[in-house]
Amino acid sequence: MAPGKKKIPAVYKPSVLTPSITEVLGITRNATKAEVKKAYHKAALSSHPDKVSESERANAEIKFKSVSKAYEILSDDGKRELYDAQGMSAFEAGNRGGMDADVDLEDLLAQMFGMGGGMGGMNGGGPQASGPRKPRRGEDEEHPYNVTLEELYKGKTTKFSSKKNVVCNHCKGRGGKEKSKPRECVACQGRGMQQGLKSVGPGLVTQETVICRSCKGTGNIYRDKDRCKKCKGERVVEEKKVLEIYIPRGSKEGDKIVLEGEADQLPDQEPGSIIFSLVETEHSTFRRAGPDLSADVHINLSEALCGFSRVLIKHLDGRGIHVKHPQKSNGDPLNPKSVIKVPGEGMPYKKSELRGDLYLVVSVDFPDAAWLKQDRRIEKLRELLPKPTEPISAETVDEVDYEEVTNMENFGAGNEGDQWEDDEDDEDGGQPQCTQQ
């Protein structure tokens, strides 16, 4: 192999009987990005629908789409690598690698070069026998779905009513009566597509090909008297259906619940799916990090010093979590912000009996002012609690006034302006003076 040439993976062997996307642009497989871009501009200009006569416009639109999609793949390193490895099979429905799901380059090339059925050279094998093509897949519908932490902990099954379009069973999706014949759509001249303008920036527009609104992309329209009485020529009707969502216990934010094939239907098209993305709502007590949970718990000063045995918190499934925490043998108390770890009381793992851990962050509540107002209690505390530490020795001692504040909110917010007043400035009226040269 010549130096600098990229080896084509064995899984993809282009067929010499069918055109590849490099041939669409008129370049070699080893063309650089600059060569790809130059070839694209040349091909796009020569095949633009506005540059040809009316009779050639339909074929020009097909070729223009082919050129645009070929450039989309070959100008992107990731997509080009996929194409080199797998051919056009990497961009089939459900595995398009970022390509527009509404545009099938294989279909465009088949129309452009007059080929029916599958295109062997474009999907990784040799020439294939012509036959019925796999129905194109419709778009998926994605919706956010709010869930509580309790629902994620225990799992949830819920039913809801949904409206969607289904293929009319009266006309089987034709849109017209059984023996009636449609006429060519005037708006798109039977192509099913129209040229439209799309804004790409302030004062900038570009042309794009869109589905014809009149015929819904079929290229044909039935007269009013020939239209299906049930769907009124729309080919689909609205139907109400009860759907069920199952959220496995242990699910997390961002997980997707997929209802296969439940999106809107269109004739000759496989329906897409309804996808629900889980959004976890904030909980008033618990915080989640992966499979683990944390929560704040409060104990009083007596419990911090002497230990406790009681229910500290109510779990997400309603159970009380009882913790027995006697005084430690070494006599160390529970300090504020101490953490008690309860193994196996976190979130469940999906499809497993394992669970994460529960972390309880301790807050120590001190007695209120009313409790401390009794002198007798103060004296008993002084007898029981450790004596004050040795006083700090200093040559000069100032006894100061103080204020009690609840937080450090105003820390660092003092005025740093210069408060010094110069007597000489006062004598001159505070105005700066010019130095005489």
What does this structure look like?
The chain is of the alpha+beta class. The chain has helices spanning 21-25, 33-47, 57-74, 77-86, 105-112, 149-154, 301-306, 369-372, 375-384, 423-427; strands at residues 136-137, 141-147, 156-167, 183-184, 193-201, 204-211, 220-221, 236-247, 256-259, 269-270, 274-280, 286-289, 292-300, 307-314, 320-326, 339-342, 358-365. It has 10 helices and 17 strands. The longest helix is centred in the first third of the chain and has 18 residues, at 57-74. Mean pLDDT is 79; it is low at 1-18, 96-103 and 110-132.
Any chance you could write out the topology, listing elements then pairs?
Blueprint: H1 21-25, H2 33-47, H3 57-74, H4 77-86, H5 105-112, E1 136-137, E2 141-147, H6 149-154, E3 156-167, E4 183-184, E5 193-201, E6 204-211, E7 220-221, E8 236-247, E9 256-259, E10 269-270, E11 274-280, E12 286-289, E13 292-300, H7 301-306, E14 307-314, E15 320-326, E16 339-342, E17 358-365, H8 369-372, H9 375-384, H10 423-427
Q: Mean pLDDT score, rounded?
A: 79
> Which strand order spans the largest sheet, edge to edge or round the barrel?
12-13-17-16
Please state the overall shape, judged from the principal axes of the Cα atoms: elongated
Topology order in helix (H) and strand (E) letters: HHHHHEEHEEEEEEEEEEEHEEEEHHH
Strand content: 15-25%
Give me the Rg, rounded.
38 Å
| Number of distinct beta strands | 17
What composes the largest sheet? 4 strands, mixed
Measured distance between first and last alpha carbons: 84 Å
Q: Which parts are unreliable, with pLDDT below 50 for 5 consecutive residues or more?
A: 1-18, 96-103, 110-132
